[in-house]
Design brief:
CATH class: Alpha Beta
Order of helices and strands: EHHEHHEEHEHEEEEHHEHE
Number of helices: 9
Structural class: alpha/beta
CATH superfamily: Acetylglutamate kinase-like
Distance between the termini: 16 Å
Shape: globular
Number of domains: 1
Radius of gyration: 17 Å
Number of strands: 11
Strand order of the largest sheet: 4-3-5-2-1-6-10-11-9
Strand content: 15-25%
Helix content: 25-40%
CATH architecture: 3-Layer(aba) Sandwich
Bound molecules: uridine-5'-diphosphate
Low-confidence stretches: 1-20
Amino acid sequence: MLLKFILGNNGDPTGDEYTRGMYKRILLKLSGEQLQGQFDGGFDADRAAWIAEEIKKAQGAEIIIMIGGGNYARGAQLAGKGVQRVTADNIGMMATIMNAVALTDVFNSNGLTARALTNLTLDQVADQFTHRRALSHLSKGRVVIVAGGIGRPYLTTDTAAVSLALELECDAILKATKVDGIYDSDPAQNPNAQKITTISHQQALEQPDIKIMDKAALGLATEHDQALVVFELLKPDNIAKAIAGESIGTTIKS
Ligand code: UDP
């Protein structure tokens, strides 16, 4: 099958829904852009509060969030004209910490208990990530918001998300996007375009047009058979539905 386009669609699901049963522990990947909400950049507390309400609908699952920083800085874009790539990536990682601490505050003030942990050490601002600390927070029913990616340059928070999902043995990564899945052709051009409900890691990796996640992240997920669900964040109930195992986007699994 030709998997060419990843585009938004307001249409109905294709109908080939199936139930996988509820995920017990998931990693939700949120990009920085999703936190800027109505603004051109920075942090929109209203959007964060909306996300908190959506997460509250998902009862019983353990939730880890890997947070991006693109609403403030992306290393690849910032580097150059004297700014070294390593410096730019450090700035990008610090951006994720800004998001994590603000998101944690908004979650806590909206009745969703959360703790921020960071892989880039910034002791005065957030607790350092450790495996044990993350598990301890999860066991107390807290949402764990992880910042700083992996804490090393030349990586994105997508790759960090896969690494963290493996480390914490998550059942699935829910990759929140602006679009509602992967299509077999361009829905804007082809009224008969079908959303692809499931594809294998290998298929996703081999298709150059699939840009839903960077290839390093997808490669790591492929190597370790880590399930991914690509879904549209802003559709109400989608987070809860994804966690409940409803087919709401495109699932990538072997
Ligand atoms: N980053 C990094 N190492 C990591 C994760 C992130 O150096 O492990 C830097 C990188 O510069 C990246 C920035 O942090 O561009 C922000 O992350 P990302 O671009 O993934 O954010 P998103 O696009 O998800 O908002």
